[in-house]
Amino acid sequence: MSRPHALLRAGFPFLKTLGMRRVTNHPTDVAVASDDTIYVLNRHALGGHVTALPFVDPGENWDQYLPRMGPDGWGDGEFIWPVSMVLDEDQTLFISDEELNRITLIDREGAFISKWGEPGDGDGELKGPAGIAIDRDSYVYVADALNHRVQKFTKQGKFVMSWGGIGQGDGQFNMPWGICVDENNDVYVADWRNDRIQKFDCEGKFLFSLGMSGTAKGEFQRPGGVDVDAHGDIYVADTGNDRVQQFDQNGRYLEQFFGDATLSDMSRSYLMTNAQSLRLREMSELEPQKRFRSPRAVRVDDKGRMFVADFKSYRVQVYQKEAIPLDASQIAQVPRSPTLFVN
Amino acid sequence: MLDRHVEDIAHLMRRAGFGLTGLELESHAGRSYDEILEDVLHPERFPAADDDIYDRYQGTVDEHEVHSAGLWIHRMVHTQRPLEEKIALFWHHVFATGMSKGEHRHSSNRQIDMFRSVGLGNFRTILLELSMDPAMLYWLDNNENHKDQPNENYGRELLELFSMGVGHYSEQDIKMAARAFTGWTFKQPIPQYTQGSYPAEFVFIESDHDDSEKTFLGETGRFNGQDIIDIIVKQPATARFICRHLYNFFVADEPQVPAWNQLPPGDPQAIDIMTQAFKDSDGEIRAVLRVMFSSDFFKQAKLRRVKSPAELVAGVLKLVGTEPVPASDITRYSAATTFMGQILYDPPSVEGWHTGHEWIDGGTLTERVNFAVDELADKNRIGVRKIIEALETQGESLSPSELVDRGAMLIGALHLDSVTRRALIEDVSVDGDLSLSSMGDSANASDRIVSLLQSLVSCREYQFA
Fold first, then answer.
1. What number of helices (H) and strands (E) belong to chain A?
2. Is B233 among the domain residues?
3. pLDDT at A1
């Protein structure tokens, strides 16, 4: 699939909110299955689990959803500090755990499949694995945060290669976190403590860097997540600035999102039976409730929906990209200079 | 035997912080006491804690108070601004606010942050910030203190426990203080269901404030809360009461607070000196601490305070070394202080914790010793490894007395009573000199070193600061 020549960017409206406290506690990542089940990876103080949510309220069929996959613990299929999650083409969930220094594979019902990874700093060993991504050739990339590098594995956990090392130069990292791969197998890394996104090819060759420390547009404060959509647009969960930023495939700043949450369906049901919470909400200024609080991950699916793991607000906020692909005949050539000519 | 200068620095850092290891102390040995003290008194000269890392790895901290407490202990261990954490612990003890009443952790965490931020500043500012602090306003019911229905809880404790102490004000003064603080409350924060809790913010509601004339501590006017604080801060009783608190926390154990209007200070002259510094500086806490830490009475007060559980746990962890990235199981730190009788963020009452020998009973002493011994059991811990390596560079061998003396130095210049020292030497002598020359013996040597370290932290002396 090739990227469109250009886009008519029609809008990016807020779509809906998923989850609530007690159901999606501290969501740290999101994965979307082909049947539109939304898997939310939740992190506890000492543990974590995956919640499966329907995108559309199933009415009386909620019992088909909400299994808690992966109890807290050190055993197979259990988690202590889960960070990131990715769903492969076989619908297997790969989940990184930065305390257990391993990748756990579970199926969509939560059944344990396998695990791999050993603590350490040698080839194939992990120290605080954070972001995880899978490319079109089925290689798995792991942001090996406390070893300040990216490691590439087979799906079975066999070490292939790594690149990086601590530093601020091109191709170096300081506690990398989020990672994603585009349709060309290029790799994007949220270089967390260097406040930037770095792009590489699948062999680790540095391609470009995006952003710097700060709060202005195009700047980052400890970015936790990164994703790329089918058009090549880059999305960054700018965690410390409580926002998500969108860039085009060349790194040109496009837009920022601060959160527009409404109450999820389950929140409404819950609140309708809690008189005390209803009263306190009536006494509060509710505007801050719309905003992201420490968004840790952003994921964009093939329908152009952007899912934001709104970590400190116990929910996922969903937006819908509205863009019309254009071919070269539909849009003028790129001019050399901007113009004040009135169209 | 320990060098006096090193002993003084070790003493200072146990009181103004959470102790230094012997190796850290040796790196300070070339600096004067006054130079080190000025650094201690100016935390802003050093980098702040890396809150981003805490947020990344412990971002769920608002879920549980044991988590907040565990993370606070982690900060105590890793801070480059030890007095900032110590003064926060001090004010947490004096302005004891319990998280358990409301479980609104944002407010509790913000209160501790406020203590870090203003705790070394002017006492007037500290009281003003305290009086606008949502955690305190809720803890002592000032949100229920209305113009037409005053609630005296905050006004009473402000005078009794936070500034002047019993015997220096009347019931009428309490009533007037309460009326002056009507309308001091907080905005209703968004409740935690269903999207998590939100911080509370102070608000002054003028329409709920009693603006009528009041007579307070002999002065008359249409006082607001700030006027009350201004009057309180200039009272001689306030200077003396706060200085006695500082003395009890930083110098030597005093009787418990309720007895202070009955029992004189253990060292009245010291309190006089500190009180004068308070007055001379118009209530600057940093200035009082400078006088106090520089004084002979401070330097002569070595091992005259029982370590609080937080001090003991943080000190042990500093000794054994922990990673800067907070561990997943930091709640075991807060669990440890809890078992020793101190639940951080949840003092037993508004009076704070009873200190000194009341920290110690059969159960808590066992917990204290066991915690220290267990932590030191692993010779692969960073700090333990450094101590072993430092001892291994001492030559071919160490005699039992050299081993004990060097070990006492390396765990933080611990001054041993002669009886304790002799007993430890006798114990170590069973296995003779410690041979450091043979690689083949290194495992045995390191085991003996670990065993000695465990004995040292089990000593009576280690329970004192």
1. 2, 28
2. yes
3. 63
Interchain CB distance below 8 Å, A46 and B191: no
Q: A281–B189: do the CB atoms touch at under 8 Å?
A: no
The label of the residue with tokens 């309460």 reads B178
Which two tokens mark B397?
A: 């061998």
With residue B222 as reference, give the H or E element that holds it: none
Residue B248 is assigned to a structural domain of this protein: yes
- Quick check: is B46 in a domain? no
Q: List chain B residues with CB under 8 Å of A26.
A: 59-60, 63
Positive or negative, the CA dihedral A255, A257, A258, A261 is positive
The model carries a pTM of 0.95
For residue B265, what are the domain limits? 102-299
Report the C-alpha gap between A52 and A24 in whole angstroms: 10
Give the Cα separation of B427 and B432 in Å (integer). 10
Q: Which tokens sit at A318?
A: 């969903």
Q: Please, what's the b/e burial string for B78-101 (b: 16 or more CB within 10 A of its CB; e: otherwise)?
A: bbebbbbbbbbbbbbbbbbbbbee
Angle, CA A320 vertex, CA A316 and CA A219 arms, to 5°:
75
Is B235 within 8 Å of B241 (Cβ atoms)?
A: no
The two three-digit tokens of residue B353, written as one number: 């914790």
Within a domain: B304: no
Chain A residues within 8 A of B328 when measuring between CB atoms: 46, 80-81, 99
B322-349 average pLDDT score: 95
- Tell which residue, A278, A260, A261, A258, has the closest CA to residue A269: A278
Q: Among A245, A227, A204, which Cα is nearest to A133's?
A: A227
Q: What is the ipTM of this complex?
A: 0.95
The CB-side HSE value for A175 (13 A sphere, CA atoms) comes to: 14
Averaged pLDDT, B134-139: 97
Domain count, chain B: 1
- Residue A186 three-state SS: coil
CB A308 within 8 A of CB A242: no
